[in-house]
């Protein structure tokens, strides 16, 4: 008689599960992390991928319409984008080198700023008790049309006249550098009487100067003045002071050009697939955003 017994074998064929990664770094910085096992710094709460029992690894990575596969476990795939360079291994380890400076590519021109400007009448201080720029004037800004148009203040003549000041909010922080201000209706013999001041986003005075380095035509035609501002700024103030000898009717600000601003953020998104030992696949996205401020959701490097 032959005795027999039964052996039950349970076969578990689990499948991998990939979960999206949302990572952030400061502009032009480096992010080091792993798409399957996240570092979770600076508020990152991404879920780790479930790899199962079959030694899951990365199978492919796609950026836009370009897909690259890991033909060898030791391959290192690389993608170059407009914002950075991703290098990623089959183990999920990756390094992303941000290359975006966070500055708007095309400098903007402000030629309609009547809703973002205000005036101060004769001998009225533009500085408050805390030593910062007053963000409300005591007279309105005024637009004057014609062949030599621009914005001044609304006390008497529409120009920026003796003792008056026009303040312009540039609509956000602007990058330090050269800015071109186009001036209208200014007498060429009194260029040193035209003054400017630059303030930061908190209203703190950064820099000041006058138009003395510019040769203005006697007929008051539109003339460009270059302001070299050495720190990031948001407000510009224009005033007129002849030490009490007012031989002309002030001037107008026609437009402000060459204003570089900062981007809020830029992002690159990569789709990755993980594969286990018997060919089961799962995919998720790695999205890397470069943002303003100090942040790095990856490993400390």
Q: In summary, what is this structure?
A:
The protein is mainly beta and 301 residues long. The protein is built from no helices and 20 strands.
Account of the protein in words:
The chain has 301 residues and is mainly beta. It has 2 domains: 21-102 and 264-291, Immunoglobulins (Immunoglobulin-like, Sandwich); 108-259, Jelly Rolls. The protein is 0% helix and 43% strand. It has no helices and 20 strands. It has strands spanning 21-26, 30-34, 57-63, 66-69, 76-80, 84-89, 93-98, 108-110, 117-120, 141-144, 150-153, 165-174, 177-184, 194-199, 205-210, 223-229, 233-240, 252-259, 265-275, 281-291. The strands form 5 sheets. The protein has a 5-stranded mixed sheet with strand order 1-20-19-3-4, with no helix packed on it. A 5-stranded antiparallel sheet has the order 9-12-17-14-15, with no helix packed on it. The model has no long low-confidence stretch (mean pLDDT 89).
The secondary-structure element order is EEEEEEEEEEEEEEEEEEEE
Overall mean pLDDT stands at 89
Count of the domains: 2
Uncertain spans, ≥5 residues at pLDDT below 50?
none
CATH class of the largest domain: Mainly Beta
Distance between the termini: 71 Å
What structural category arises from helix and sheet content? mainly beta
Which CATH-level-2 architecture of the largest domain?
A: Sandwich
Put simply, the count of helices is 0
CATH topology of the largest domain: Jelly Rolls
Q: Largest beta sheet, briefly?
A: 5 strands, mixed
Tell how many strands the DSSP assignment holds: 20
Percent range for β-strand residues: 35-45%
From the spread of the alpha carbons, the general shape counts as: rod-shaped
Q: Helical amount among residues, as a percent range?
A: under 10%
User: Which strands sit side by side, in order, in the main sheet?
Assistant: 1-20-19-3-4
Radius of gyration: 31 Å
């Amino acid at each position: 008689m032959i005795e027999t017994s039964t052996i039950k074998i349970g076969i578990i064929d689990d499948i991998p599960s990939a979960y999206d990664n949302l990572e952030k770094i400061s502009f032009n910085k480096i992010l080091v992390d792993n798409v399957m096992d996240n570092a979770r710094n600076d508020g990152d709460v991404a879920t780790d991928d479930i790899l199962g029992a079959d030694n899951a690894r990365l199978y492919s990575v796609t950026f836009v319409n370009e897909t690259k596969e890991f033909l060898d476990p030791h391959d290192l795939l690389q993608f170059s984008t407009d914002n950075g360079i991703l290098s990623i291994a089959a183990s999920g380890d990756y390094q992303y080198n941000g290359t975006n400076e966070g500055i708007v590519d095309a400098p903007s021109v402000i030629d309609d700023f009547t809703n973002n400007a205000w005036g101060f009448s004769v001998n009225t201080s533009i500085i408050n008790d805390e030593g910062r720029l007053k963000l409300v004037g005591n007279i309105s800004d005024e637009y004057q049309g014609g062949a030599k148009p621009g914005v001044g203040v609304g006390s008497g003549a529409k120009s920026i006249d003796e003792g008056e000041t026009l303040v312009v909010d540039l609509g956000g922080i602007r990058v330090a550098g050269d800015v071109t201000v186009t001036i209208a209706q200014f007498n060429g013999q009194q260029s040193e009487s035209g003054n400017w001041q630059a303030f930061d986003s908190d209203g703190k005075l950064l820099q000041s100067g006058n138009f003395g380095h510019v040769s203005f035509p006697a007929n008051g035609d539109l003339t460009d003045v270059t302001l070299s501002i050495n720190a990031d700024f948001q407000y510009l103030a224009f005033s007129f002071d002849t030490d009490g000898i007012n031989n002309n009717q002030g001037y107008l600000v026609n437009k402000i050009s060459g204003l570089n601003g900062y981007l809020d953020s830029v992002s690159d998104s990569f789709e990755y697939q993980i594969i286990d030992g018997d060919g089961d696949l799962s995919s998720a996205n790695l999205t890397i955003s470069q943002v303003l401020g100090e942040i790095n959701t990856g490993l400390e490097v």
